[in-house]
Design goal:
With 86 residues, this protein is α+β, with helices and mostly antiparallel strands. Helices cover 19% and strands 35% of the residues. The chain has a 4-stranded antiparallel β-sheet, with no helix packed on it. Strand 1 and strand 2 form a beta hairpin. The protein is flat and about 40 Å long.
Length: 86
């Protein structure tokens, strides 16, 4: 993919902490989870191939609610009682 004429490209260093999670549908889709401690946020970014197509910025205080929702969803799927790590 090339940048449109007249546009300037910015090089941005990716944070060293985070995870890359592939989309089960394939097609070059994936999600990156990055921590930005300098501003107290976690960024969930959605990618297709090498281009970011969307982001959600969560304040650190919102992360436990996200984790709880994921754990509860997994527990409901299996019928297990959710347990949070200590």
């Amino acid at each position: 993919m090339t940048a449109p004429r007249g546009s300037e490209g910015n090089v941005v260093a990716l944070p060293s902490s985070g995870e890359i999670i592939p989309d089960q549908r394939g097609g070059g889709r994936w999600m990156r989870v990055t921590w930005h401690d300098e501003v107290g946020v976690v960024v969930l970014s959605l990618w297709r191939e090498t281009g970011c197509v969307g982001t959600v910025r969560l304040d650190r205080s919102q992360v436990p609610a996200l984790v709880t929702a994921l754990v509860d969803g997994l527990a409901a799927e299996t019928g297990a009682t959710p347990t949070m790590p200590s």
